[in-house]
Design brief:
This protein starts with a helix and ends with a helix. It is an all-alpha fold and about 140 residues long. The protein has four helices and no strands.
């Protein structure tokens, strides 16, 4: 019984020393570093990233349109030649959704909920476009 009391008191002392956190919690810094940004900062960053993401996704959609039109011919004619899809093409297609997913995770860890939700929504849209473009590229082979 004495061993249990000493262990419990020792853990309580550690918690008091580390500011009430559990001993197993990650050390994420102290003071101002642990505070989350203001809602105004979060909303401003979300707005700026939303504009940048919309431009990036519009560029991806335009690229899909151009590539799709370049591989299509007049009605009744099949495509000219079969092409293999290179891993580089697939990497380019999936770069934007991966970047958006990483951005969503980073902003969630920075405790910026508005920005994280906006990035998550753009990640869903980018993933949908990437799936469509991958299907388009694979249909040309």
């Amino acid at each position: 019984m004495g061993w249990w009391e000493r262990t419990r008191n020792g853990i309580g002392g550690l918690r008091r020393r580390f500011g009430g956190r559990s001993v197993t919690d990650e050390d994420e810094g102290t003071g101002a570093e642990r505070q989350r940004p203001s809602r105004l900062t979060d909303a401003a960053v979300a707005l700026l990233l939303a504009v940048a993401d919309a431009a990036a996704l519009a560029g991806v959609a335009l690229l899909m349109f151009i590539v799709g039109m370049s591989h299509s011919g007049p009605p009744g004619r099949t495509t000219a030649a079969s092409e293999d899809v290179s891993p580089l093409q697939l990497a380019v297609v999936w770069f934007v959704p991966c970047a958006l997913a990483v951005s969503c995770y980073v902003h969630a860890r920075l405790r910026m909920p508005i920005t994280s939700v906006v990035q998550g929504l753009f990640c869903v849209i980018g993933t949908t476009l990437a799936i469509g473009e991958t299907n388009m590229l694979l249909s040309f082979t």
